[in-house]
């Protein structure tokens, strides 16, 4: 007598490959990595600008020029600008997805959000790259002390 | 300890820290948009930047800055707590303790920041 072959009642379960990619996963991981970096960057930013020396009273054009005359501060501020805007934009995107139920409302809000992202990031980046701490023809009283030596 | 009504996620530290994280996050984001654009005035002229920054140097804006820093410090420590809940194997078990540690750090940080900032604002 031959052994009867029992066929499997159905094909084994295979998870269907998602076609949408892992965008949301990468976004989730990005929020955590950028979050840790931003805590360090922004706490430093707040300490230097609000607590050290004269605090907010010291902030004027010469103060900004004093920081951005040095390349490391420009790099730090550029990284902070990009990370903070990406972190914030992704956070607000999540909130829009949670609360705006109509497709049209969600679409409009996201167009506004991404426009704000592009305008602010492009403006901020251009300013950091093209900033002149001692602009020619400016009132010397408003400039940092080191401009006098030029 | 009274049990939260409804689902496991409703009410208490878990839900309210989530709500506060969203509220402070949106607040900080809108401030950031304005902050980058007003700082961009350094590219226009020293006079333009100083004029706008000058309008911020009054007690009302000074109190606003204190509120902004409070929002940032909360978002920072609560964010670190979220990361621990996600990645630390015992994070979810101790999430309530972690929340109160984060709040303790918030109070300590603000106690260090507020007196000095308010002295700058009110000229003490």
Automatic annotation (TrEMBL), chain A:
Annotated signal peptide: none
Main localization, broad class: membrane
Highest taxon, organism lineage: Bacteria
UniProt keyword list: Heme, Iron, Membrane, Metal-binding, Transmembrane, Transmembrane helix
Record-annotated membrane-spanning stretches: 25-51, 71-90, 111-131
Subcellular location: Membrane
Keyword DNA repair among record annotations: no
A Pfam family that the UniProt record links to this protein: Sdh_cyt
Protein name according to UniProt: Succinate dehydrogenase hydrophobic membrane anchor subunit
Organism: Flavimobilis rhizosphaerae
UniProtKB/TrEMBL annotation, chain B:
Keyword annotations from UniProtKB, A to Z: Heme, Iron, Membrane, Metal-binding, Transmembrane, Transmembrane helix
InterPro entries: SdhC_prok, SQR/QFR_C/D, Succ_DH_cytb556, SuccDH_FuR_B_TM-su
Gene3D superfamilies hit by this protein: Fumarate reductase/succinate dehydrogenase, transmembrane subunit
SUPFAM superfamilies: Fumarate reductase respiratory complex transmembrane subunits (SSF81343)
Chain ranges passing through the membrane: 19-37, 66-85, 97-114
UniProt keyword Transmembrane helix present: yes
Localization annotation: Membrane
Domain of life where this protein originates: Bacteria
Cofactor: heme
Keyword Transmembrane helix: yes
UniProt cross-references to NCBIfam families, sorted A to Z: succ_dehyd_cytB
Family: Belongs to the cytochrome b560 family.
Protein name: Succinate dehydrogenase, cytochrome b556 subunit
Protein species of origin: Flavimobilis rhizosphaerae
């Amino acid at each position: 007598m031959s052994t009867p072959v029992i066929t499997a009642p159905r094909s084994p379960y295979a998870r269907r490959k998602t076609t949408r990619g892992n965008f949301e996963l990468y976004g989730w991981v990005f929020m955590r990595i950028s979050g840790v970096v931003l805590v360090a960057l922004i706490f430093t930013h707040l300490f230097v600008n609000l607590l050290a020396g004269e605090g907010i009273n010291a902030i004027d054009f010469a103060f900004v020029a004093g920081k951005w005359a040095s390349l490391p501060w420009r790099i730090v501020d550029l990284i902070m600008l990009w990370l903070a805007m990406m972190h914030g934009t992704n956070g607000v995107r999540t909130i829009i997805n949670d609360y705006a139920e109509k497709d049209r409302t969600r679409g409009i809000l996201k167009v506004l959000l991404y426009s704000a992202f592009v305008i602010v990031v492009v403006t901020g980046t251009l300013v950091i790259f093209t900033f002149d701490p001692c602009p020619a023809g400016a009132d010397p009283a408003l400039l940092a002390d080191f401009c006098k030596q030029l | 300890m009274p049990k939260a009504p409804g689902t496991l996620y409703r009410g208490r530290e878990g839900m309210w820290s989530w709500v506060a994280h969203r509220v402070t996050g949106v607040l900080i984001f809108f401030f950031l948009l304005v902050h980058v654009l007003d700082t961009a005035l350094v590219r226009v002229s020293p006079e333009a930047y100083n004029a706008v920054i000058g309008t911020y140097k009054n007690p009302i804006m000074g109190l606003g800055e204190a509120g902004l820093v409070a929002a940032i410090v909360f978002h920072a420590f609560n964010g670190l707590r979220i990361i621990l809940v996600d990645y630390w194997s015992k994070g979810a078990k101790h999430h309530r303790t972690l929340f109160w540690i984060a709040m303790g750090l918030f109070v300590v940080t603000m106690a260090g920041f507020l007196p000095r900032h308010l002295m700058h604002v009110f000229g003490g």
